[in-house]
């Protein structure tokens, strides 16, 4: 479990725009108010920030990296670096570790979460990010694929629009920033409720979080997050689950999930994910 130091909770009380970790559902506003990206920029230090952009999930990392580079430079960041990692284990080269050491904020773009995990999984680069989040001297944000990877378990693919069943979702290992969470992104925009329910039926020890586009779970401290953005965050909590037929069901037969708790949260709502209560 992520252990964000108490100093972060103190900072968030002083400045409500300071969020140690921001998990974004994808397609965040980059044109108008840029509310979520601005909150990340401010959390990372504002005009004193050094922001690192990790675009390696994308098939067009140069294009995607440059877009975020222009956005954060336009906001006035002191320095913006693109960590354009292309090969497995390349991230552990001194050039990238040295660049990471200078960053106050690190931003993972969208793309393919499997590619992201293949490139960064088990690396010193990723371990350093997690250590620095825990120490309180690095702000992390991930959007779309960059959000999917934060759990110990990760949705790597699947389909939408059917009743919950085992064939709806493909699962693999994530990067484990929040081991207890299982995140799905572009949530209501791509009709992924049944997909997340199917993932939770397979992993009833996890807490399901479905994040809409232009919406963010902005973590205030070591146990709570706040909803930012125009959409909703759906919580799928199996803590009181009394029955599921997951183990006995065939790949395509409908799943039963009894006594599942569901919350739908919108802008300004806060949730205690350790105690699993809406605040």
What keyword list fits this structure?
279 residues; single chain; 8 helices; nine-stranded mixed β-sheet; alpha/beta; 17 strands
Topology:
Elements lengths: L5 H9 L6 E4 L10 H9 L6 E5 L6 H15 L3 E4 L11 H9 L2 E4 L4 H8 L3 H12 L3 E5 L1 H4 L4 E6 L10 E5 L7 E4 L8 H10 L4 E5 L3 E5 L4 E6 L3 E5 L5 E2 L12 E2 L2 E5 L4 E3 L4 E2 L1
Describe the protein in words.
The protein is of the alpha/beta class and 279 residues long. It is 27% helix and 26% strand. It is built from 8 helices and 17 strands. The chain has a 9-stranded mixed β-sheet, sandwiched between helices. A hairpin with a 4-residue loop joins β10 (215-219) and β11 (224-229). The longest helix has 15 residues, at 61-75. 48% of the residues are buried. The model is unreliable at 5-15 (pLDDT under 50).
Give a quick rundown of the structure.
The chain has 279 residues and is α/β, with parallel strands linked by helices. It has helices spanning 6-14, 35-43, 61-75, 94-102, 113-120, 124-135, 145-148, 193-202, and strands at 21-24, 50-54, 79-82, 105-108, 139-143, 153-158, 169-173, 181-184, 207-211, 215-219, 224-229, 233-237, 243-244, 257-258, 261-265, 270-272, 277-278.
